[in-house]
Design a protein that fits this description.
The chain has a 5-stranded antiparallel sheet with strand order 1-2-3-4-5, with no helix packed on it. It is built from 1 helix and 5 strands, in the order H-E-E-E-E-E. It is mostly beta strands.
Length: 135
């Protein structure tokens, strides 16, 4: 049995060396030429866009909106939403390569405050005397 193994090992070694045709297929990947096609990316030297949305859901109370526009490297926009404390938060923002991103936040209460007159007259009731009779 060892003899058969030695003969098989010698046969495989000779086949791998290219001395004889191999009954065991050995494959080598041939280099494949890949042609690269260079496609010029579309380039817009002055990109522009505008978008916006507005959500007013009376069932859930969800209230939010946003608008934004871009002209070249300058982006401007604003968004607003109702915070859980009942105030509307509005953020106005700009972004450009010179000043970076800048935002200004405004908050306004949506619930009307009770207005109290500064000089309203105060009326005082006269004290009432209580007399007890035991009798």
């Amino acid at each position: 049995m060892a003899f058969k193994f030695v003969v098989l090992a010698a046969f495989v070694a000779a086949a791998n060396a290219g001395l004889i045709g191999s009954p065991v297929a050995t494959y080598a990947a041939a280099p494949v030429a890949v042609a690269k096609t260079v496609v010029a990316d579309e380039y817009d030297p002055h990109p522009q866009y505008q978008y916006g949305y507005d959500v007013q859901d009376g069932l859930t109370g969800d209230s939010k909106s946003q608008i934004e526009s871009r002209s070249g490297d300058v982006v401007q926009g604003s968004y607003s939403l109702v915070d859980p404390d009942g105030t509307r938060r509005t953020v106005e923002y700009t972004a450009d390569p010179i000043n970076g991103f800048n935002a200004v936040v405004h908050r306004e209460p949506l619930v009307a405050k009770a207005v109290v007159a500064a000089h309203a007259p105060v009326v005082h009731a006269a004290p009432v005397a209580k007399i007890a009779h035991f009798g």
